[in-house]
Amino acid sequence: MTDDKKSGIVLIATGEAYWLLEGEDYLNAMLSDEEYYPKPVKMINYQSSFDLNMDLPEGISTGSLWGVHPQIIERLRRLKDIIEVEK
């Protein structure tokens, strides 16, 4: 799905729903912000759930991914630890 490996963590989003696509090894560190995790986090924003699902790797659905709470996303934005791209 992603050609850019600059970030060890890749999130995907549509609306106010967020999921971890890559970087499960760093999930707890990102959530707690108390341990090292690669920054900045990359987040791919999709216009719709349909667009998001069409772009997911075969065999992957949002139901099989870790959800990320919106307040975690807000913290990443506030600390400028996230790069967001529109898809």
Q: Secondary-structure map with pairings?
A:
Layout: E1 10-14, E2 17-22, H1 27-32, E3 41-46, H2 49-55, E4 66-67, H3 70-78, E5 82-86
Parallel strand pairs: 1-3, 3-5
Antiparallel strand pairs: 1-2, 2-4
Strand order of the largest sheet: 4-2-1-3-5
- The string of secondary-structure elements, in order, is EEHEHEHE
Helix content: 25-40%
What is the residue-mean pLDDT, rounded to a whole number?
Answer: 92
Structural category: alpha/beta
Number of structural domains = 1
Please give the alpha-carbon distance between the first and last residues.
12 Å
Unreliable segments of 5+ consecutive residues = 1-6
Characterize the main sheet. 5 strands, mixed
What spatial form do the alpha-carbon principal axes imply? globular
Number of strands: 5
How would you sum up this structure, described in words?
The relative contact order is 0.27. This protein is α/β, with parallel strands linked by helices and 87 residues long. Helix content is 25%, strand content 28%. A five-stranded mixed sheet has the order 4-2-1-3-5. It has one domain (10-86).
Entry keywords:
single chain, 87 residues, alpha/beta, five-stranded mixed β-sheet, 3 helices, globular
Short characterization:
By secondary structure, the chain is of the alpha/beta class. The protein has three helices and five strands.
